[in-house]
Amino acid sequence: MNRLLSGLAALAMAGLVSGSATADVTVKWLHIENTPETVAWMQGVAKAYEAAHPGVTIQMQYLENEAYKAKLPTTLQSPDRPNIIYSWGGGVLRDQVKAGVITDLTDAMKGEWADRFGPAALDAFTIDGHVWGVPVLASQVGFWFNKPLLAKAGVKAEDIKTWDDLLAAVKTIKAAGIVPLATGGADKWPIHFYWTHLAIRLGGKAAFQSAYNQSGDGFDGPVFVKAGEHLKELAALEPFEPGYLGLTNPQASGYFGDGNAAMHLMGNWDYNTSKKNSASGKGLADADLGWFPFPTVAGGTGEPTDVLGGVNGWLVTKGSPPEAVDFLKFLTTQENQAKAAELGLYIPVVKGTAEKLKNPFFRQMAENIAKAGYFQVFYDQMLGANVGRVVNDVSADLASGATDPADAASQVQDAWAMH
């Protein structure tokens, strides 16, 4: 009898092992993408993977950008956390790695997979020699502009080369009864693009590295105080749309897409989001749209080619099935990323895809990123969530007049010294 029971137990165990080998697997993919074209492409890639891997389901989950940032720390502590999450790299990634919730991809990405990316892209997700994420896209921040509105105001975008040129253009545009600049002040980070860009133009890489490494002048040094003074100089002209401090970035993006403002300082993704968030869903026609990089600042040591942007990608959370890693390998094949480039969804970082970019704006930015001697990742990501929040807060406070340049810079330095 004992032998019979033992035999049945063995068969049952064999059945369990066999069953587990063919068990269905669900990979939860949490994203922040809200443009229909990009979501459709992502769904297509997921379905193609599922077709080639029977029993695997890629379950797409969505959170709006601000909600994602706010909820992610709690989400990552949940036993039901998603398997693949979006990342901007930088200090936020470092904090997540420190918390022990991210999978180390160093071994998985060795060889052919790692070779798909340039060193700069891979470095954005490398911490202490270990690779923690899969880079997918690069971005650049600059001024999108409405050609008909600038023409109506008598302003030529090609003449805006310096900060003083921009201030003069703002005055002229406002005098013509047109809102010069759209910005989503409620989200704050869109305004940080002004303060940080000004610091980049004033102090270049050296100023940031000195403050970051705590090896010289900090974030309360002359460069960052001066950046605040220039931002206040702009804000004094009241260049933004009425009620801008109560508008989110999607709302401001739609405001620009509806033709209500002459310019919008935003990343290349705004090409799609300004259309998606416009009342018509179509935004400005390409013929009416233009773009120019952030202007130089008198006396600044930064190079005009220095870029503020990001290298964004995907992370795999700790305890996820191996299929999550395998799916990201599939997502970042040259074929899939070339299609994203061709569709004009973003600027991929996989080698051999930039030439597939048909969007002239994206192509220009890809060239700018390639030749930049200094590529600065967004401060609010690079410095980590806590310090980044202070950067965004003081940027909005500078614009609204709630703080002064020296105090704003001191707040950032104090936060960085305590991080």
Structure description:
- With 419 residues, this protein is α/β, with parallel strands linked by helices.
- The protein folds into 2 domains: 26-138 and 310-369, D-Maltodextrin-Binding Protein, domain 2 (3-Layer(aba) Sandwich), CATH 3.40.190.10; 140-308 and 376-418, Periplasmic binding protein-like II (D-Maltodextrin-Binding Protein, domain 2, 3-Layer(aba) Sandwich), CATH 3.40.190.10.
- The protein has 18 helices and 12 strands.
- It has helices at residues 2-21, 36-52, 65-76, 90-98, 112-115, 119-123, 147-153, 163-175, 189-213, 222-235, 249-257, 270-276, 322-331, 334-343, 360-371, 379-382, 385-400, 405-418; strands spanning 25-31, 56-62, 84-87, 126-127, 130-131, 134-146, 179-182, 261-267, 289-292, 307-316, 347-348, 375-377.
Output the keywords.
single chain; 419 residues; alpha/beta; D-Maltodextrin-Binding Protein, domain 2; eight-stranded mixed beta sheet; two-stranded parallel ribbon; 18 helices; 12 strands; 16% strand; globular; disordered N terminus; signal; Raffinose/stachyose/melibiose transport system substrate-binding protein
Largest sheet: 8 strands, mixed
Topology, number of strands: 12
Secondary structure tally, helices: 18
What fraction, in percent, of the residue positions are helical? 40-55%
Family: Belongs to the bacterial solute-binding protein 1 family.
Subcellular location: Periplasm
Protein name: Raffinose/stachyose/melibiose transport system substrate-binding protein
Keywords: Signal
